[in-house]
Structures are given as structure tokens and as C-alpha cells.
Write a structure and sequence with these properties.
It is a single chain. The chain is of the alpha+beta class and 391 residues long. 28% of the residues lie in helices and 18% in strands. It folds into 2 domains: 156 residues, Orthogonal Bundle (Lysozyme); 119 residues, Glucose Permease (Domain IIA), CATH 2.70.70. Strands 1, 4, 5, 6, 7, 8, 9, 10, 11 and 12 form a 10-stranded antiparallel sheet that branches. The chain has a two-stranded antiparallel ribbon with strand order 2-3. A hairpin with a 3-residue loop joins strand 6 and strand 7. It is elongated.
């Protein structure tokens, strides 16, 4: 099997210890009058009989009665549990959002395809819990927790009321989306160049949490950003109702078999999806399909488009990215990696079948093959459903 090499990172979590406090034994009060217990030999001592105490007379009957009433109510359905089954987090999450925010949330998220209303809402939930004063003590302002410096960069009058303020929810949502979209463009470029790998949403959130330099250095989501990425993506599932189409996976669906074969024979040696790398043993998503082909075989464009990247990269070797424009309202791109040589340049228009390069084994590769990817709206998707049956 011919594969692309993957890298593995490890993260460690610091541990901690607690200290218990030792209690000293207590002593009872000394008796007064040491001779009070003395008696003559043969003399019996009469001890007074003790009656029931106040706890037995007053408290215990009340507790018994209370437990009986509670048991009756529970059996008859009159006592509800605070952990009733069927209570999800979605109602409580969306209920925290003022209904007037939703149109502005959707408008803000329309700034780019990577950011959805549910993702933006999840970030705000994570940053402030929708509280306009949550970060006041740390200098962060508004529901999107902007500092003064951050607001000077991203803040604008989003709702047209004549002023720009991080405490104006409409302005804050628009500014956060503006920042996210800028980060998405940067990590998209890094991924196109083969500098980083991973899901575009994950990389964007990681860049927000740790900065694009940290993402570039790690080549993926850096360890210090993993918790933030995981939490925001988990929270986003509670806000799916805010997305216009009501679904979170539409962007990954193939529009149909609209692509031509990039090489003459489509013999799959490594499919799309999770797989265990034969060299490293790491289980990770394979972002494309590997097609077997001899060294120097022709690689052609799968559809009409324009070359947006053509250069040598560390991981992908000689790599070409073709932008095919919009299909069904979503941006479609194809990539061709590990090429022996390049036959096109950036900005060049191509048609289906236009020669792009020759099959090789440049970059992190174990042998000649073509690593072919299909990217829809920034998300990797299985290339095979896109290829025509006769390909």
C-alpha cells in the first residue's frame, strides 16, 4: 500500500495533589468531686432510669412522616426529579440567546463559509455565556469578550446605529465573525501550501485560541488549543437550530459525479477516511484518495477551473490546487500531490483533461502515486463519489 506519512503529537496534562488536615483527638471535661463515685463495700448504687430524649419525641416522628409523604408522591408521579430523562441541553442553551440576536447572528456568520451561526453562537457561549459583562474584570467587554486592542482591529458599526461598541451584541457578533473569517483565510492558505493539515473549522478555532503562528509551527491544531476546539465544537451542536438549513453536514455532501479521472486508471491504494498508517501506526483521517500510477504518468485536471497553487511543499511535495468555482452554492477545489514535475502555473485557466503534472513521489511519500483530494467549502470530502462512473 502506498501512503502519505503522518506525524503524531503527544500532549501531557499536569497533575496535582491535595493535602488533608489531621484532626487531633478531643478529650471530655473532667468530673468534679473525685469522691462522688466512692461507695462502701456491699452497698448497691441506684441509677435513675432515663426517658426518651427530645430528638425521639420531636424530630424523629417528623422525619418518618416526611419520608412517607415523599415516597407517596414519587410513586404517584407528584414528585418530579431535577434529573428527569428527556431533558436535553438544547432548550437551555438556545433559551439563553435573546430572540432579537438570531437575525444578526445569521448575518454575521454569512461573512464566510467556514463560520456558521451555530459555531459563532458556541464561541460566544464559551467566551461569555452570553453575558455582556462576563469579562469585565479582565478587560474583556461584551458577549464576544473583546479587549480594547482587539476591538480596534475588528470592531465596526454592525447594525448601523451610528456607533461601534463591543457591548452592542450586533456589533460584537459581526466583529467575531470578521475575525474568524480572517483566520480561516490564513489557515486555508497554510493548508493549501501543505504547511498544516486538518479540518478547516478546527484550524480556524485553533488559530483563534493560540494564533496562526502556533498552528503553523505545529502543522495542525496545537496541543494548547485542543481543549478550546473540542469544547466549542461540542457546544455548537446545541445551537443547530440557528443554522438556516438546520443541518451541520450539508457542506460535505457530493453534488454528483461531475469530475473526470485525474489519472488514466483509478486503482485505489488508500481510500478516504480514518486509517492506521502502515509506517507510524497512527490512526488518522486520510484526507484524499491515493491512486496507483507509475512514475512519470500524466496527471490531468478533473474539471474546468483556475490554478490557485502550484509549488513544492514539505509534506505534499509538488502540489497543485485547482479552484473550480461554485457548485450548488459551495466552492469546489481539487488537489494533486507528490508530483514529479509541474506543468502549469498559478493563475492559469484549465479545462477537464488539461495536463497538470507528472506522477512522482516527492514530499512525504513511500513511492510513486497520486494523492487526490476534493475540498468542498473548505472541508475534505471523499473524492470517489465525485468521479464519473466511466472514470
Amino acid at each position: 500500500m502506498i501512503d502519505d506519512r503522518l506525524e503524531e503529537t503527544e500532549a501531557t496534562e499536569p497533575g496535582g495533589e491535595g493535602e488533608g488536615r489531621r484532626q487531633e483527638p478531643s478529650t471530655g471535661p473532667a468530673r468534679a468531686g473525685g469522691s462522688a463515685d466512692a461507695r462502701q463495700p456491699g452497698q448497691s448504687v441506684k441509677r435513675p432510669r432515663r426517658g426518651p430524649g427530645p430528638f425521639t419525641l420531636l424530630v424523629l416522628p417528623g422525619l418518618v412522616a416526611l419520608m412517607g409523604v415523599a415516597g407517596f408522591l414519587a410513586l404517584t408521579g407528584g414528585l418530579s426529579s431535577p434529573w428527569d430523562e428527556g431533558e436535553g441541553d438544547v432548550p437551555s442553551a438556545t433559551a439563553r440567546v435573546d430572540a432579537s440576536y438570531v437575525p444578526w447572528l445569521r448575518k454575521a456568520a454569512s461573512a464566510c463559509t467556514v463560520v456558521t451561526p451555530s459555531l459563532l453562537a458556541a464561541q460566544i457561549d464559551r467566551l461569555s455565556g452570553w453575558n455582556n459583562d462576563a469579562g469585565a474584570l479582565s478587560g474583556e467587554k461584551g458577549i464576544a469578550a473583546f479587549t480594547d486592542a482587539g476591538w480596534r482591529t475588528w470592531g465596526k458599526d454592525g447594525d448601523g446605529n451610528g456607533r461601534s461598541s463591543p457591548r452592542d451584541p450586533a456589533d460584537a457578533m459581526a466583529a467575531l465573525a470578521r475575525q474568524d473569517c480572517s483566520l480561516a483565510r490564513k489557515v486555508t492558505d497554510l493548508r493549501t501550501e501543505g504547511v498544516v493539515s486538518g479540518d478547516l473549522v478546527d484550524l480556524t478555532l485553533a488559530a483563534y485560541a493560540s494564533g496562526t503562528d502556533a498552528v503553523r509551527k505545529a502543522g495542525r491544531v496545537p496541543g494548547e488549543a485542543e481543549a478550546y476546539v473540542t469544547e466549542v465544537k461540542s457546544l455548537s451542536s446545541h445551537y443547530r437550530a440557528f443554522d438556516p438549513d438546520g443541518s451541520g453536514g450539508a457542506a460535505n455532501r457530493a453534488a454528483g459525479a461531475v469530475l473526470a479521472a485525474p489519472v488514466s486508471t483509478l486503482t485505489v491504494t488508500s481510500p478516504f477516511g480514518a486509517r492506521q498508517h502502515p509506517l507510524t501506526g497512527v490512526t488518522k483521517v486520510h484526507t484524499g484518495v491515493d491512486f496507483a500510477a507509475p512514475q512519470g504518468a500524466q496527471v490531468s485536471s478533473a474539471a474546468q477551473g483556475r490554478v490557485v497553487f502550484a509549488a513544492m511543499t514539505k509534506a505534499y511535495g509538488n502540489r497543485i490546487v485547482v479552484d473550480h468555482g461554485s457548485i450548488g452554492g459551495k466552492r469546489l477545489e481539487t488537489t494533486y500531490s507528490h508530483l514529479l514535475s509541474l506543468q502549469v502555473s498559478v493563475g492559469q485557466a484549465v479545462e477537464a483533461g488539461t495536463p497538470l503534472g507528472l506522477v512522482g513521489s516527492t514530499g512525504l511519500s513511500t513511492g510513486p502515486h497520486l494523492h487526490f483530494e476534493v475540498i468542498l467549502d473548505g472541508h475534505y470530502t471523499d473524492p470517489l463519489p465525485w468521479l464519473s462512473p466511466g472514470a
